[in-house]
Amino acid sequence: MFFCIKFRNMLVLKFGGTSVGSAKNIQKVVQIIAAIHEPKIVVLSAVSGTTNTLLEICSQLQNDLKDNALLNVHQLHNRYLDLINDLYKTPLYKGKARGFLTIQFNELISLIKTTEAATIDNIIVAQGEILSTNLVQLYLNESAISSQLISAFDFMRIDENGEPEIDLLSEKILPILAQNPTGNLWITQGFICKNTLGEVDNLQRGGSDYTASLIAAAVDAKEVQIWTDIDGMHNNDPRYVENTFSIEEISFDEAAELAYFGAKILHPQSLIPAKERNIPVLLKNTFNPQQKGTIIKNKTVQNGVTAIAAKDGITAIKIKSYRMLLAYGFLKNIFEVFEKYQTPIDMVTTSEVAVSLTIDNTEFLSEIDTQLSIVCVAGDFSQNKEGISATVFNALREIPIRMISYGGSNYNVSLLVKTTDKVAALNSLNEELFVENLAV
């Protein structure tokens, strides 16, 4: 009974690679963790830059460049030695951290020297999260903050389709937490998991967000907190548009549209378990924790446009055939081709004799133009109240629009433009749709 009551107030906090990207940043993360008194599970990504280096090592091994791979491992080891020298205060914990690194990197070198390259990619890539969580756990110990490190390999599983099962996750993680009923803080890895064969695997890039949401659903947490390096979700892309602002509250449906269509703060899949279990997701800035951030939750979408995002690297495909006229099953045949090659479709429009669609994966295509971008305008378009869609199109009156997707969702209008027109489109929409905010 104590266990059930205690973990009703559980929080799940995820810190991304930038948040743990240096000794100074790790110290900020620990300050944030220590200031939160509710029971919490902290999910950590790899230190920024580590996963890219590990993927490069995998690529070098695949191309039979073992010496290059070993040199990269040596350089990565040195970067971590510099990190622990700055992170820990006492010789005791500096020594413990060096000892841990020696073991991990020696095992990695041995694996590279003795194992067939094709079988160890996932093991190599998993080292990033293993390194970050163990080093943070040691720093918590040095700081006299009681915590327990639990391995994602002990509870995070994916099925034969690469999909995690929340019920199985709950079945495995709750007994692990119950082993320490007086505990208040657990540290674990994002991204990594095991598959049905018991092999090391992962939830794909951006999977640490997904890990946090899955754990929250499994323990019925009160809230998921995603800590990054920006003040929540913005109404537009601040890299290209001036006078943007942080959104205080947004619905799951709107946030999912924005995440899929280019809002980099959040991994699109990560919202699904939280939405299904009605667990709010709070987006916060590690480097500006006083800011409110953005809360994502099940709520009625307010009338009007909430935010705008854009996704680059889009390819448009037009399929035209007079056999489509008055025919049935033609669209099914088209979509089966994309299913066969596991290529998701972003937008689709049809006429009597043609289908236009967009994709962002051109692995199975060649000699095509990918210099296109999808601009997603998220908000309430269910009844086109107050001429919202007219305002959207009026804002883009001087921007050539290649394709429009409207009506497939009540929560977005998607427009395909040349990538060279993307910044102009984002700014024009910002000026037309958020005029009241800009005037403040």
Task: Output the CATH homologous superfamily of the largest domain.
Answer: Acetylglutamate kinase-like
Overall mean pLDDT: 90
The string of secondary-structure elements, in order, is HEHEHHHHEHEEEHEEHHEEEHEEEHEEHH
Measure the end-to-end span: 52 Å
Second CATH tier, the architecture of the largest domain: 3-Layer(aba) Sandwich
Note down, in words, how this protein is organized.
By secondary structure, the protein is an alpha/beta fold. The protein has two domains: 2-229, 3-Layer(aba) Sandwich (Carbamate kinase), CATH 3.40.1160.10; 305-439, VC0802-like. The protein is 40% helix and 20% strand. The chain is built from 14 helices and 16 strands. Strands 3-4-2-1-7-9-10-8 form an eight-stranded mixed beta sheet, with helices on both faces. It has a six-stranded antiparallel beta sheet with strand order 12-13-11-14-16-15. Helix 3 (50-62) runs antiparallel to helix 4, helix 5 runs antiparallel to helix 6 (121-142) and helix 12 (388-395) packs across helix 13 (422-433). The chain is globular and about 70 Å long. The protein starts with a helix and ends with a helix.
Question: What is the strand and helix layout of this fold?
Answer:
Elements: H1 2-6, E1 11-15, H2 23-35, E2 40-44, H3 50-62, H4 66-87, H5 91-114, H6 121-142, E3 148-149, H7 166-178, E4 185-189, E5 192-194, E6 200-202, H8 207-219, E7 223-228, E8 249-251, H9 252-260, H10 271-276, E9 281-285, E10 294-297, E11 304-320, H11 330-340, E12 348-350, E13 354-359, E14 372-380, H12 388-395, E15 403-406, E16 412-418, H13 422-433, H14 435-439
Parallel strand pairs: 1-2, 1-7, 2-4, 3-4, 7-9, 8-10
Antiparallel strand pairs: 5-6, 9-10, 11-13, 11-14, 12-13, 14-16, 15-16
Helix pairs in contact: 2-4, 3-4, 3-6, 4-5, 5-6, 7-8, 12-13
